[in-house]
Specification:
Number of helices: 5
Strand content: 15-25%
CATH topology: Creatine Amidinohydrolase
CATH architecture: Alpha-Beta Complex
Order of helices and strands: HHEEEEEHHEEEEEEEEEEH
Largest sheet: 5 strands, antiparallel
Radius of gyration: 17 Å
Structural class: alpha+beta
Helix content: 25-40%
Number of strands: 15
CATH class: Alpha Beta
Strand order of the largest sheet: 8-7-9-14-15
Length: 277
């Protein structure tokens, strides 16, 4: 779930607290994997929300989203020109749609937050590329979550991938965020900007990195439900997100089933995911 910055001190987690966040992250990862399988033509976003509720119950976890400033469900389900914060409803997904699902879980007071974009049935090549670029930008950002870097090194890497791939729009009003004992914490993590700026990244920080990219202009507005964010020009959008912890051994993607190990190994990046996925 995206945010604008709030003025709180950056929370530094102990290794034990990061382990609890990993438990929450695995609930998120397994639930999103199940939703990806279940989503398809003829399914409603309400159907998917019910499945996510069942997964939370089985895991003994709580929802990060339900009741958050009055939000009514446990997933955000954003279809086509809906970018983020779409409220599940009885809309039936159609072949060729694109669906972004954002989901968060709490285990023993610690949060995990992630989002995926799902192609419903057979999507156009344009839509497939949009999702692939957004996902690639996310991983480029995660790779910069290394001790000693600056926060905007993450932002810059995300933007570079998107800008080099085509004339896409990058949302500026909604950004990533710190995460831990609360879902939304300092610092804000924009998906654009020059490198070498902002706080220095240190061990114990945890960030939710989440590029939101459109096929058209970046400008958006919120619908009358006070949640659903849609593009002004009705262009379609993709949203990918992971929660990553900064450790002495490197970045650990808490909401990826393998901890990010496959990506980091392929790109020569040290990570604790190599030994404790």
């Amino acid at each position: 779930m995206a945010m604008l910055g709030r003025k709180n001190k950056i929370e530094i987690k102990t290794p034990q607290q990061i382990e609890l966040m990993r438990k929450a992250g695995l609930v998120v990862a397994t639930t999103l994997a199940k939703l990806k399988v279940e989503a398809g033509p003829g399914v409603t976003t309400n159907d998917l929300d019910r499945i996510a509720r069942e997964e939370l119950k089985k895991a003994g976890a709580d929802s990060s989203f339900l009741g958050y400033y009055g939000y009514p469900d446990v997933i955000c389900a954003s279809v086509n020109d809906e970018v983020v914060h779409g409220i599940p409803n009885d809309r039936v997904l159609q072949d060729g749609d694109i669906l972004s699902i954002d989901f968060g879980a709490i285990v023993q007071g610690w949060h995990g937050d992630a989002a995926i974009t799902i192609e419903i049935g057979t999507c156009s090549d344009e839509v497939k590329k949009l999702s692939a670029v957004t996902k690639s930008a996310l991983w480029a950002g995660l790779a910069k979550a290394v001790i000693g870097n600056r926060l905007s090194d993450i932002s810059h890497s995300v933007e570079q991938i998107v800008r080099s791939a085509g004339p896409y729009g990058i949302l500026e009003e909604f950004v990533g965020h710190g995460i831990g004992s609360k879902m939304h914490m300092e610092p804000s993590v924009p998906n654009f900007g020059a490198p070498g700026r902002g706080p220095e990244l240190i061990a114990g920080m945890a960030l939710a990195i989440e590029p939101m990219v459109t096929l058209g202009e970046r400008h958006v507005h919120t619908l009358d439900d006070n949640w659903t964010v849609v593009t002004d020009d009705h262009s379609w959008a993709s949203h990918w997100e992971h929660t990553v912890a900064l450790t002495q051994e490197g970045p650990w993607v808490l909401t990826a089933l393998d901890g990010g190990g496959q990506y980091f190994a392929a790109n020569g990046i040290a990570s604790p995911a190599m030994t404790r996925a």
